Amino acid sequence: MKPTLVLVGRPNVGKSTLFNRLTRSRDALVADIPGLTRDRHYGHGRVGDKPYLVMDTGGLEPVVKDGIMHAMALQSLQAIDEADKVLFIVDGRQGVTAQDKIIAEQLRRKDQKILLIVNKTEGMSAAVVTAEFYELGLGEPYAVSALHGDHVNELAALALAEFPEFEEAQNEHRYPKIAIVGRPNVGKSTLINALLGEERVIAFDQPGTTRDSIYIDFEQNNKHYTLIDTAGLRRRGKVKETVEKFSAIKTLQAVEDANVVVLVLDARSEISEQDAHIADFILQSGRALVVAVNKWDGLDGYQREVIKRELSRKLSFLGFAKLHYISALEGTGLQKLVLSVDQTYVAAMTDLSTPRLTRALHTAVEKHAPPRGGMSRPKLRYAHQGGSNPPLIVIHGSMLDHVPETYRRYLENFFREAFDLAGTPLRIEFKVGHNPYAHKKAAPLTEMEARRAHNRRRRNRKKYG
């Protein structure tokens, strides 16, 4: 197993900045705002031949007893229990604080391996800036600057020095990525926790609880997945805070990074234009889609019928997607949801042979030929697969630039039904064969050829008048 390094500390000491340095990524949101990170956030890093896991956590507020900050603290304490080594981060420019002392006391009770990191020490003498932190009783402090990258590589090597080398499997962590998206407060984090069977992410009855996109590996029925919990997407006009703008960007990036997207809708509120906008972005991104209508429990027959009519009217363009009515809080409907995710993933990643596609193409043309374009009809000769996730079918022929959009949609639906590609968008690309001799001038006729052509024209005039 890879060693797991867990970053803990009070808010705004630079944990997420150090996380990005250790993972050589920009996966964690970073801003000069306390409490930006709220959930546990995993990443992968490597020092030489030693790979490792890094876990970013929310700010540890030991004196807060309720609210989101208390939930963040519980998440951090749970992460500490999972750690092989804890990296306790403090702020070198602020010095030792009362919170630092309380956190240090809690860490000592945990009986974990701890490395004390003094961050934000750029331009300062390491010996001077670390001196006062010895009073925390956690051993020798180590000075770094996560923002500038000073001594970060040496820190990673020091943290991993006691762990043996780990042989990483070549295909490790290449599991289907499932992004959970939707408007704020529709139950995305509750759904994640229900699937995992634990309080893995913070779920609060208020919009905007999740700010970052959290990648979580889990296993169910001997199958591995990577779930992506995302921030809720509001209408553009209502997104004003800088943090929320970055959260929205992270969500859109998560959609494009995913193999399958689960669009979560709230059955207890009407289907809004924003739901349609999110669905359209998923469709334009070409991602396989499963729709989950959450909070279905407790609705009477009339309310359920109203929601079904709204779905049919406002999201009619998602007819290819599988639809499930669930309750993340009660855990109902989740098994069928996961089964649809599996089937949709298989459809999105399917490999289709050229002979099968060409036979299906000819069958589609026999059932319904393309309309004429001018004096002649487009000819669709053969097809092959040009990509997956979403499946791309490339059709070759002549006059294909005259194929109307309605016929393209007919072919998409025909191929989807013929190859059981439910749940995934399908893209058709037409390629016209060009005449290689079109740009060449004809050679002049010989005297004999010219005489024969003249006689042929005379005979045609006598015959046809």
TrEMBL record:
It comes from Nitrosomonas aestuarii. Associates with the 50S ribosomal subunit. Gene3D superfamilies: 3.30.300.20, P-loop containing nucleotide triphosphate hydrolases. This is GTPase Der. Residues 443-465 are annotated as: Disordered. Belongs to the TRAFAC class TrmE-Era-EngA-EngB-Septin-like GTPase superfamily. EngA (Der) GTPase family. The gene is der. GTP 1 binds at residues 9-16, 56-60, 119-122. One of its GO terms (molecular function) is ribosome binding.
